Amino acid sequence: xxxTTPGQTPSVDTEELLADPYAVYARLREAGPVHRFTxxxxxxxxxxxxxxxxxxxxxxxxxxxxxSRAKPGxxxxxxxxxxxxxxxxxxxxxxxxxxxxxxxKAFTPRRIAALRxxxxxxxxxxxxxxxxxxxxxxxAAYAAPLPITVICExxxxxxADRPDFRNWTDAIVIPDPARPERAKDAVRALxxxxxxxxxxxxxxxxxxxxxxxxxxxxxxxRLSEDELMSLAFLILFAGYENTVHLIANxxxxxxxxxxxxxxxxxxxxxxxxxxxxxxxxxxxxPLAIRRFPVEDVTIGGVTVPAGETVLxxxxxxxxxxxxxxxxxxLDLGRDVTGHLALGHGIHYCLGAPLARLEAxxxxxxxxxxxxxxxxxxxxxxxxxxxSMRSRGLRxxxxxx
Length: 400
Known about the structure:
Blueprint: E1 2-4, H1 14-19, H2 21-31, E2 34-38, E3 44-48, H3 51-58, E4 63-64, H4 82-85, H5 95-106, H6 109-113, H7 116-130, E5 135-137, H8 138-143, H9 145-155, H10 162-173, H11 180-203, H12 209-215, E6 217-218, E7 221-222, H13 225-255, H14 258-266, H15 271-282, E8 292-293, E9 297-299, E10 302-304, E11 310-312, H16 314-318, H17 352-369, E12 374-375, E13 397-399
Parallel strand pairs: 3-11
Antiparallel strand pairs: 1-2, 2-3, 4-8, 5-13, 6-7, 9-10, 12-13
Helix pairs in contact: 7-9, 7-17, 9-13, 10-11, 11-13, 13-15, 13-17, 15-17
């Protein structure tokens, strides 16, 4: 990746960014608040790095999520077929307002709270399977199957269909560069499956979120078929990948900070609040969803032309010493009010309570079951997936 800004700006290549993102973001943040750069895909964008600018931009209505606002040739994000693209991450008001209002009617605190015991049962079941082995890849055995099981429970996916559901999701979320057709085949299969699932929920509603979304209305307004399918995909996509990395990154952070781990073991009731410090310290989403100015916009003193791509670095903002004292230190007692891990403004993540619930229970059950939990190897040996879009480990080997 190369950058240019007015004045003196460091030069950064892709390998350096992927190998040590926080050091690179720190240099960029101190060199200037906004940088013109060419990303890992070769497409141009503007990168915003300081907390105040990122937070303000997240809520700025002049920065659109609608891809039709983008100039040709810029970064537009994940390409999806129309049946999956009518989701909240591609919309501005009034469409965003209308759909979010309908979704809120179904995605209730009661529904999230009802998942607490199923999540805990699933966590124990997964750990029962690996405990006799004495060691495991915590991602494959625990951090990945837990959220996909929760999402299937939430959407009302039958147990018999869950293995296919997870395979399709993995193919989309972690595409194989050697087999690009695998992701396309998975998208087609998932669209067909969701269409059949929606028809079944319409014919025979059950006590699940998808049935509620099919039924929800505001006067005569209801969600269209594409909107329903896109929402189901968004819940799956965001709720799976991000939660996997949140749980795994948090576990790694605790295991490499024994003092903090000891504190949380002594007071496990603090975990619900500690989740947000863990997300600030090394969260799963380094960059907010891309945005496109509807007019020329000045950010941090830099004017970004209309239609160009703006990327807001949550990872850089969360390590900004102007907002968080000693930001490179994990401090589970820190006041993280104002963290941006789940966004800010009208696009604040609707699934934030569920993500917090899953991470809290996943970590509490793990620490409760395995008082001698430790990395199986050196911290230097863990490998990060090479991605700017997400921050996640390839594997997390642990011993009990």
